[in-house]
Amino acid sequence: MRFTPTRAAGLAQLDAFNAGGAAHYGQRRNFDLGAKDHSNVSQLSPWIRHRLITEEQVLTRIAKTHDLTQMTSFVQEVFWRGYFKGALQHRPSIWDHYLAGVDRAHDAVGTLYADAICGRTGIACFDHWRDELVTTGYLHNHARMWFASIWIFTLRLPWELGADFFLTHLLDADPASNTLSWRWVGGLHTKGKTYLASAENIARFTDGRFNPVGQLALTAEPLVEPFEHPLVPLATPPRMPLDDALLVITKEDCTPRTFMTGDPRGLLGIVHPDTGMSADFSRGAVEQASADIVATHDWAGQIAEAANRAGTAQVVTAWAPVGPVASALATAQSTLRKEGITLSQGQRRFDGLTWPHATAGFFKLKKKIPQILRDLDLAKPPAN
Ligand SMILES: Cc1cc2nc3c(=O)[nH]c(=O)nc-3n(C[C@H](O)[C@H](O)[C@H](O)COP(=O)(O)OP(=O)(O)OC[C@H]3O[C@@H](n4cnc5c(N)ncnc54)[C@H](O)[C@@H]3O)c2cc1C
C-alpha cells in the first residue's frame, strides 16, 4: 500500500508536498498524470479524512514555508472538505436518501453495472481509473469528476451505485465529500448545474494519455429530486474535558487528544467489521491511535465494558459527522444511557468555525476563509 495509516506517514507526505508540488499547485493541480506521478497534488486526503493530520495542521505547516495569500486555490480546496461536512450536517436527510437509493438501485442492476465496476466498459480512461481506484485506493480529483460524469451521463447508471463504489474503495472514503460531490456532478447539489466530462478536457488534463473522442455523452441533463432536503440547525457541542472519562476513537478523528484537554482513564477504538482496502486503512488508523484496543461488534456493549473497566460513567469521543459512525454511535448512545453511561461528542474549533457557513453554496464559506484563518492565527506571512 502506498498510503500507510499513521500520523507519521501523513506528516511525511505533507513535508514532501510542502517541499515539492505545493509551490505550483495552483497551476498544475488539474492535471492527472497517472498513478506514478500525482506529485502536483498533495495526496493527503486519506490522512486528513481520518484526522490523522488535520486541516489546521496542514495549513499551519504550509504557512511556515508559503504565503497562504499566494496559495488561495490550495487553501480553498482544504476548506471544501469542511464545506461538504457542514452541508451534510445541515441536511442529514441527504444521507438517508442516498442509502435508500443504493438499496433500490442494487435491486435493479444489470450487466452494464458489472462492466463498470470490473473495468470492462471499453472506454479506456474510465476502465483505467477503475483499475487505479481498486488497486491504489486513490484517484485524482479530476479523474473522480470525469469518472462520475461518465458513470451518470454516458453509462446512465444510478449515481448512488457509483458513490457506493467509491466509498468501498477510496482510502479517503468520506460520506459528505463523496455523496455531495456525486450529487454535484449529477446536478442535484447546485440544482440544475451538471458536470459534463468531455474528450477534449480529458485529453488536455491527462497530458494526452486518453482521448475518448466519440465515446462520451455530449449533453448532461440534470438529475432531479421531487423534494427539498430540509435545513436542520446545527447543535452547539459542549466543551469536552477528558479527565475521568473513557476516550473512544473512531475513524472520524484519530487524534482527538490534539484538541481535547485532560487525561482519560481509558482508551477504546471502535471500527465497523468491514474488509477491503478502504476499511483496512480506517482500521489501521484507529488501531494505531488507540493502542490496538479495538472493538468491531456490539459497540454499546464494548464501550460499557471498557467504561466499567476504567471505573467511569463518562465516555467522550470526537464529533462524528453524518454517516455510518454517527448512526452507530446514536444507536449505542441510547443503550448506554439506560446503563447510566453518558456518551458525549466534542467538536474541533475548525469545524465550529466552518460548518455554520455551509448552508448554501461554497461561495458563502469562501468569503469567510480570511476571517477563519485569522481566527486560527494562520493569516500571517511566513517568517523567514
Ligand atoms: C465524485 C467525487 C467523489 C469524491 N469523494 C471523496 C471522498 O470520498 N473523500 C474525500 O476526501 N474526497 C472526495 N472527493 C474530493 C476530492 O476529489 C479529494 O478530496 C481529493 O482529490 C483528494 O486528493 P488530494 O489529497 O491529492 O487533494 P489536493 O488537491 O491536494 O487537496 C488538498 C486537500 O483538500 C481537500 N480537498 C481537495 N479537493 C476537495 C474536494 N473537491 N472536496 C473536498 N475536499 C477536497 C482534501 O482534504 C485534500 O486532501 C471527491 C470528489 C469527487 C468529484
UniProtKB/TrEMBL annotation:
This is Deoxyribodipyrimidine photolyase. Binds 1 FAD per subunit. Gene3D superfamilies: 1.25.40.80, DNA Cyclobutane Dipyrimidine Photolyase, subunit A, domain 3. FAD binds at Y25, F74, E77, V78, F79, W80, R81, G82, Y83, F84, D172, A173, D174. InterPro entries: Crypto/Photolyase_FAD-like_sf, Cryptochr/Photolyase_FAD-bd, Cryptochrome/DNA_photolyase_1. It comes from Celeribacter marinus. It is an enzyme of class 4 (lyase). Its EC number is 4.1.99.3. One of its GO terms (molecular function) is deoxyribodipyrimidine photo-lyase activity. Keywords: FAD, Flavoprotein, Lyase. Pfam families: FAD_binding_7 (PF03441).
